[in-house]
Amino acid sequence: MTNTVFRFFPEPIFKYKIQNYEKQNQDLSKYIYGLYNNDKKSLKKSNVGGWHSKAFNLADNDSPPHIFFQNIKAQINDVFQKYGWEFTPEKIKCEEMWAIINKKGNFNVEHVHANCHLSAAYYVKVPKNSGNFQIFNPNSISRNRYPKKSKPTEFNIVSAVLKIEEGDLLIFPSYLPHAVGQNETDEDRIVLSFNLSVQS
């Protein structure tokens, strides 16, 4: 009988709590609602209902999204270092950043982010029961063919749920399938998302 179990090919999600997030979230919320009030037409991506913004203008150095991105560079660098990837901070590029406002009944279906290395979600406003972050096993074979389970384990689960709070930052591989549960409250749920790549 073996007493060794090898755990290869893990799928990481890095979670950080941003310090002093309250003031930052106030500024981001004001900025996002400003965009929403000026153009309530939503892009159609993974969102079912809700409002998906156009990409932010990160060239504006005074904008709250630009300031936010500068403030989380230590967390981004930490992820790249933990992956063991060769990089220099100056070559990490934010490909795109946007916001989603989910109102009551809105949610996001399972999806991935193509043509980038890492993706992230930062939580600006998260009322209780407004929709948790859901992840799915990217190995399609393990999701479609398996014996009956006697109990859930790290080896047989095909999906998982992360409860998130305001000020949480999640960074994960862009190929990892994910979704957002339905907002069951009368309050808005606001998330800021972005994609990262390393320039060669």
Can you describe this structure in just a few lines?
Helix content is 21%, strand content 30%. The protein is α+β, with helices and mostly antiparallel strands and 200 residues long.
Strand content: 25-35%
SSE run: EHEEHHEEEEHEEEE
**How many alpha or pi helices?**
4
Query: Which stretches are low in confidence, meaning pLDDT under 50 for 5 or more residues running?
Result: none
Broad structural category: alpha+beta
Q: Give the overall average pLDDT.
A: 95
In total, how many beta strands? 11
Shape: globular
Gap between N and C termini, in Å? 47 Å
- State the helicity in percent bands: 10-25%
Structural overview:
The chain has 200 residues and is of the alpha+beta class. The protein contains 4 helices and 11 strands, in the order βαββααββββαββββ. It has helices spanning 21-38, 64-71, 73-83, 140-144; strands at 14-17, 47-48, 51-52, 92-102, 107-111, 118-125, 133-136, 159-162, 168-173, 178-180, 189-198. The strands form 2 sheets. The protein has a 6-stranded antiparallel sheet with strand order 1-9-6-11-4-3.
